[in-house]
């Protein structure tokens, strides 16, 4: 089991609480702010959407049943907008089947009312920890993509063939250049991509192209 985030790590995150029950919003805000966690509360999904700003790492604690737009409808709206904010649903016992469907669509988890405070804190901690890791991955992809832009067309062609697993001789034959020229291009590619090894180069190239390791290149 992965270790839970420390208190200082939790304080780096923002938790949005959306629930039409004033008492639940207030109690959650008191609980989280007491632990030094930044919180924003909303009585309905529409108010949240009007004020939401993508500032990861963050997560959403969301009531599944609310007047107007329901929690699941808000989840669908965020998915349609390409927002990947992690969601923890608050649900009554009778709503568990709905909550399970929400998890299948990407929600982190759900917690039943009345909920255990520590259980909720743990779920929020895991959600923020995961979001922090995802954000670091996105930043690495952006850095790798910027390095790819530094390559000349010939260097990019060499890199593509290296990533495809081609040997220098094969690359030379395919591009109509000498093996020595391939080696020169590879050296330049390693330097521009800031790669220390072939494996590092391939991982960086895949990240820059937004291709997860193991996917077809």
Task: Please explain how this structure is put together.
Helix 7 crosses helix 9. The N terminus and C terminus are likely disordered. This protein is of the alpha/beta class. The protein has two domains: 134 residues, Response regulator (Rossmann fold); 59 residues, Arc Repressor Mutant, subunit A, CATH 1.10.10.10. It has a five-stranded parallel beta sheet with strand order 2-1-3-4-5, sandwiched between helices. The protein is elongated and about 75 Å long.
Name the overall outline.
Answer: elongated
CATH evolutionary superfamily of the largest domain: Response regulator
Could you please say which CATH topology of the largest domain applies here? Answer: Rossmann fold
Strand order of the largest sheet: 2-1-3-4-5
Backbone CA Rg: 23 Å
Structural class designation: alpha/beta
CATH architecture classification of the largest domain:
3-Layer(aba) Sandwich
Q: In percent, how helical is the residue content?
A: 40-55%
Estimated share of beta-strand residues:
5-15%
Number of domains: 2
């Amino acid at each position: 089991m992965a270790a839970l985030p420390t208190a200082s790590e939790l304080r780096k995150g923002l938790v949005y609480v959306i629930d039409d029950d004033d008492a639940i919003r207030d109690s959650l805000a008191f609980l989280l702010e007491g632990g030094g966690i930044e919180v924003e509360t909303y009585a309905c999904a529409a108010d949240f959407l009007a004020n939401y700003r993508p500032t990861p790492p963050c997560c959403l604690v969301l009531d599944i049943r609310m007047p107007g737009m329901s929690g699941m409808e808000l989840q669908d709206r965020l998915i349609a907008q390409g927002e990947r904010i992690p969601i923890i649903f608050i649900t009554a016992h009778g709503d568990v089947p709905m909550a399970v469907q929400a998890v299948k669509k990407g929600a982190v988890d759900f917690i039943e009312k009345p909920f255990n405070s520590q259980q909720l804190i743990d779920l929020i901690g895991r959600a923020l920890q995961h979001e922090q890791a995802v954000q670091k991955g996105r930043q690495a992809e952006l850095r790798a993509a910027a390095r790819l832009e530094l390559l000349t067309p010939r260097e990019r062609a060499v890199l593509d063939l290296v990533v495809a697993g081609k040997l220098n001789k094969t690359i030379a034959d395919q591009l109509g250049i000498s093996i020595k020229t391939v080696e020169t291009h590879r050296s330049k590619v390693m330097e521009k991509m800031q790669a220390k090894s072939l494996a590092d180069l391939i991982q960086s190239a895949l990240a820059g192209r937004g291709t997860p390791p193991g996917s077809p290149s």
